[in-house]
């Protein structure tokens, strides 16, 4: 793997492979691009290119300026996609699920499919202030971050907890607050059926106490036309870290069945 810049040179990429298809991986709240490393190692599809990136304010971009909102994140991911010369499967976990959906909606002709992993609905989680405030307050408090990860997972190893906590601890407190508001408030597009009509795979953790089955059913599954859903046992909110082989196997199936759109129309632009 090697790191390099893309069309948006502020977005640091890591990629491998040279196939005619690309998996673009986008991480969730307080994480970084390396959260996908184990999934990528477990992929069986030969030669497929994989791209990982850090969202603004996170990973290697903790010094980035705002705004930290879904449209800005989607624009960053879209810039990466525009720099690629292959059809793409977009993979987003937690708060990145709405980000990759927004990108797919404006790049449908080049999007082979979406994989939404323990997805926050595009309309947001809509938690009341007293419920979202503990997440807003996680900035600068590694012990609280570790406790939240333990609470919302069922199979995170100590080494994974240590690494993820260290990654999240580097995020500026004001960015943490903005990110929590971002995934809680959501995007207006989430109040109607998705503008992306291609294949969608939703991957849930059976023990996820945050993105519950009810939230996924109401806020995600009913918004798409062509959708498959899979639940991974023995995993919580970080199913891609807890059970990377299971997630990789599901992505391999998506790669095997997803094909470029037959629609010759140009991608829609906002």
Walk me through this protein's architecture.
By secondary structure, the chain is α/β, with parallel strands linked by helices. The chain has a single domain, classed as Rossmann fold, CATH 3.40.50.1820. The chain has ten helices and eight strands. The longest helix is centred in the first third of the chain and has 14 residues. The protein starts with a strand and ends in a 13-residue tail after the last helix. The N terminus and C terminus are likely disordered.
Which helices and strands, and how do they pair?
Elements: E1 2-5, E2 12-16, E3 22-26, H1 37-42, E4 49-53, H2 70-83, E5 88-93, H3 96-106, E6 111-117, H4 129-136, H5 142-152, H6 158-169, H7 173-185, E7 200-205, H8 213-219, E8 227-232, H9 239-242, H10 244-257
Helix content: 25-40%
CATH architecture: 3-Layer(aba) Sandwich
The fourth-level CATH homologous superfamily is Alpha/Beta hydrolase fold, catalytic domain
Main sheet attributes: strand count, strand direction, barrel closure = 8 strands, mixed
The structural domain count equals: 1
First-to-last CA distance: 33 Å
Tell me the name of the CATH class. Answer: Alpha Beta
Strand neighbour order, sheet with most strands: 1-2-4-3-5-6-7-8
Mean pLDDT: 90
Low-confidence stretches: 1-9, 261-270
Radius of gyration: 17 Å
CATH topology heading: Rossmann fold
Kindly name the structural category. Answer: alpha/beta
Number of helices: 10
Shape: globular
Number of strands: 8
Please provide the ordered H/E string of secondary-structure elements: EEEHEHEHEHHHHEHEHH
